[in-house]
Amino acid sequence: MRFTDPPQEDGIASRNGHNSTNDNAIGSLRHHQRRPTYPFRKSHRSKPRRWPLVLRFIKGAVHGAIILPVLYHAVFTVLIICLDRYALASIGLPSTIIPSLSIVVGLILVFRNQTSYNRFWDGRNSLNTINTVIRNLTRTILTHSYNTSGPLTPAEKHDIERTIRVLIAISYAVKHYLRCEWSTTTAWSGIANGSGAGSSALTDNAGGIGSFSPEYESLLPAGLEGHEDEGLGLPLQLTFFVDGFIKRGSRRGWFEAPGASGLQAQLNTLTDAYGKMETIKLTPIPIAHLIHQKQVLALFCCVLPFAMVDELGWWSVPIVSLVTFTLYGIEGIGSQLEDPFGFDRNDIKMDAIVEDERVEIEAILAEWRKVTAASGAVDDDGVVDAGERNGGGEFEPKEMFIKDIPTVVVSNGR
């Protein structure tokens, strides 16, 4: 989306001169219209489609996966026509068998497509649940983690920031886990030593696809030792850090018993959503159904030339090709949606969604750092500004996302 200045009426400056009211109103309007929109900047579509969807045959389409079956059936139809006209007397079948067979094929394809789309939609909803839980945990931790006696200590600030980074890392860990992008224990040791050897080690993992970003590395706790080679998934391992922080926060008096229970319930919801995505990944459609579907689809498309050769002749070739293109296309879409966590164009945009989540949480964390730094600032007299004190004299941190407005003092008689 492009943001431009609001149109101004002719003569507004000449009539009003430097009218502060109009200038403030126009400035406020510009402030809201010119600010770029960063949320969903990666997962949102950035440019319009140049070609109508009906004319697209490569990007996002399944034509490449079904072109061979369509060609095979077209060649088979040509062979049947040649045999019917030049070799044999008549090998045609009555066309009345097509409706009964098409009902069976249609039901099978509908079941396959609906099942695959449900897997796609459930996977997207589970990913959204994980992002929502991370947002809720981030908001609650940053707003409730403070001491009533004064500002946070550097160790407490480090503990809070470390936990927030772990929450962001969980999204990355879930993405890599579902894509079988494994790490190794040796790889994590590079992070622990600060040598940077972890990046090269993670790109050479066995049994998975190497994909490791510096942003992901910076989110992981120092000294983390992975146990994926022993069967422990990293997303579940990272939840232990968050649960441990909830326990420490409860001891420090940051969270009361109901609040700590609510945070643990949110963490359980995250683990449950991660388990649902794991179920989708590890539970494919039964092989018996896939075998029967392929066989029925191939047999139906092979029967079509026999039912059309007597009435349509050579026109059977384009008709059979069109029917084959339609049926195999529906089956191809179902195959792509069966595992929605991959890299296909029709899969869930996990890279963009996870990256948008990281940018969002880091913006909140940056605001929290600014507020906590202001609450613990030292003035010229060496006195620590402890934020605000309520009626009982207890410390209350400043609110986040509130711009400091200078206080205007109005003297009497002026």
Automatic annotation (TrEMBL):
InterPro entries: YneE/VCCN1/2-like
Biased composition regions of type Basic residues, renumbered to the chain: 29-44
Composition-biased stretches (Polar residues): 16-25
Protein name: Uncharacterized protein
Organism: Polytolypa hystricis (strain UAMH7299)
Cell compartments where the protein resides: Membrane
Domain of life the protein comes from: Eukaryota
Major subcellular location class: membrane
